[in-house]
C-alpha cells in the first residue's frame, strides 16, 4: 500500500486518556491539529511525512514550532491512533487513542475488502482443499463464532473437523463479494456429503482473522435444458483485477 491511500481531506476527533485533539489531513505533506482544552491547547499546521505500514496503517511524523516531535501510528481499519511524542522539555509521552471521523476523505479508499477476500480464500482452500489443520490458529480468531448448528463452537472444534476430513473432500472457490469486514464466497465442495454441494459461506473479519461464520449449503443439481449451472469454477474471475488472478 502506498501513501496514495492516505485519506487526504479526512477530519477526525482523537480521544486520548488525558485530552482530545482534532486532526485534519490536509495532504500527504501537511496536517492541522487542534487541541481545545488543557495544557497542550493550541492550533497548528505542521509538515508531515507519511509512511505506509500496510493494512490501512500509516506512520505519520512531524515536528512542531516549539520543537516537540510526534509520531502517530494511524490505523484507519480499526479507528485507533498510537502517539509517541517528545515534548520541548524532554518529556516523553506514549498515548493510545480512538477516533471518530467527522469529515470523510476527499477520495474514500478502503483496502479491507481486497485483503479480506484474500484471507477468506486462504482459509477455505487451506482447510478444505489442502486439509491443513494447523492453519486454523493462523487464520481464525481465538473467539471464533460458528453459526452452523451441526458444528461445535471455537477453533478447536474446527481444527478437529479438518483433521478428520476424508481424503476426497475437495473445495472449489467461486465468486466473492466483500464490503467492510464481511466477505461472502460462493463455492462447491465434494466429499462433504453424498452429493457435491454448492455453498455460500459468509465471514466476519476482526483484526485480520476470521471471527464469525454463517453458511448455506445445497446439493448440486445438474443443469437441464434452458437452465444455467448452479456453479462455475470460472465465476471467481469475474471482475477480478489482473493482480488477483
Description:
The protein is mainly β and 245 residues long. It folds into two domains: 3-103, Calycin beta-barrel core domain (Lipocalin); 112-238, Nuclear Transport Factor 2, Chain: A, CATH 3.10.450.50. The chain is 13% helix and 45% strand. It has three helices and 13 strands; from the N terminus they run ββββββββααβαββββ. The chain has helices at residues 112-128, 135-139, 155-163, and strands at 11-15, 20-25, 30-35, 42-54, 57-63, 69-75, 80-86, 92-103, 140-146, 170-179, 182-190, 197-206, 209-219. An eight-stranded antiparallel β-barrel has the order 1-2-3-4-5-6-7-8. The chain has a five-stranded mixed sheet with strand order 9-13-12-11-10. Strand 4 and strand 5 (57-63) form a beta hairpin. The longest helix is centred in the middle third of the chain and has 17 residues, at 112-128. It is elongated, with a radius of gyration of 23 Å. The relative contact order is 0.11.
Amino acid at each position: 500500500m502506498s501513501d496514495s491511500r492516505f485519506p487526504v481531506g479526512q477530519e477526525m476527533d482523537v480521544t486520548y486518556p488525558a485530552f482530545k485533539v482534532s486532526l485534519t489531513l490536509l495532504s500527504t505533506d501537511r496536517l492541522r491539529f487542534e487541541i481545545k482544552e488543557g495544557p497542550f491547547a493550541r492550533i497548528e499546521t505542521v509538515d508531515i511525512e507519511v509512511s505506509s505500514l500496510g493494512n490501512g496503517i500509516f506512520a505519520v511524523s512531524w515536528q512542531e514550532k516549539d520543537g516537540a516531535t510526534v509520531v502517530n501510528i494511524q490505523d484507519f481499519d480499526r479507528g485507533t491512533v498510537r502517539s509517541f511524542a517528545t515534548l520541548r522539555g524532554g518529556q516523553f509521552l506514549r498515548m493510545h487513542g480512538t477516533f471518530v471521523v467527522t469529515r470523510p476523505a476527499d477520495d474514500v479508499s478502503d483496502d479491507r475488502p481486497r485483503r479480506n477476500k484474500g484471507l477468506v480464500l486462504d482459509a477455505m482452500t487451506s482447510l478444505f482443499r489442502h486439509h491443513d489443520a494447523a492453519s486454523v490458529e493462523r487464520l481464525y480468531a481465538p473467539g471464533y463464532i460458528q453459526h452452523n448448528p451441526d458444528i461445535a463452537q471455537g477453533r478447536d472444534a474446527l481444527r478437529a473437523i479438518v483433521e478428520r476430513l476424508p481424503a476426497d473432500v475437495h473445495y472449489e472457490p467461486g465468486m466473492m463479494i466483500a464490503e467492510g469486514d464481511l466477505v461472502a464466497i460462493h463455492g462447491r465442495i465434494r466429499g462433504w456429503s453424498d452429493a457435491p454441494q454448492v455453498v455460500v459461506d459468509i465471514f466476519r473479519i476482526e483484526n485480520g482473522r476470521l471471527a464469525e461464520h454463517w453458511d448455506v449449503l445445497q446439493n448440486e443439481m445438474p443443469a437441464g435444458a434452458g437452465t444455467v449451472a448452479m456453479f462455475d469454477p470460472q465465476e471467481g474471475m469475474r471482475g477480478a483485477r489482473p493482480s488477483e488472478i
